[in-house]
Design brief:
123 residues; 4 helices; transmembrane
Length: 123
């Protein structure tokens, strides 16, 4: 299942290379795409571990969603890989802070949605 993580990193590197070669509006669009994929990975992080606990009968090492698996490895890799691409290609510090803040917000929202099932979120 680590192949999915490797493919995610390859996709992030390709997107980063494409954005590095572009300029102006095209580069801004690559930053938006990378940031969106990073935020999606951040928001799915807790939900993926919730699914792993639910299907794996309380453990990440057992069951069909045992470690490493697509559900548990791709969201953090996407969060980090695409987030780094977006941060490197961002044109200003203000945009970088927005990307970072939205990534943290996506994680917090994922914690609120998925964490309640395993006792991490409040009610």
């Amino acid at each position: 299942m680590t192949l999915y993580a490797v493919l995610t990193v390859v996709a992030a590197l390709w997107l980063g290379w494409t954005g590095w070669q572009a300029s102006g509006a095209a580069r801004a669009q690559v930053v938006m795409i990378a940031a969106g994929l990073s935020i999606a990975g951040a928001s799915m992080l807790i939900l993926s571990y919730t699914a792993a606990f639910a299907v794996g009968v309380g453990t990440l090492r057992g069951g069909p969603f045992g470690w490493p698996n697509l559900v548990t490895i791709v969201p953090p890799v996407a969060w980090l890989a695409f987030g780094l691409v977006a941060l490197v290609l961002a044109e200003s510090w203000a945009v970088r802070f927005q990307i970072f803040g939205l990534g943290v917000l996506g994680f917090v929202l994922g914690l609120g949605l998925g964490g309640g099932f395993i006792g991490l979120g409040g009610r």
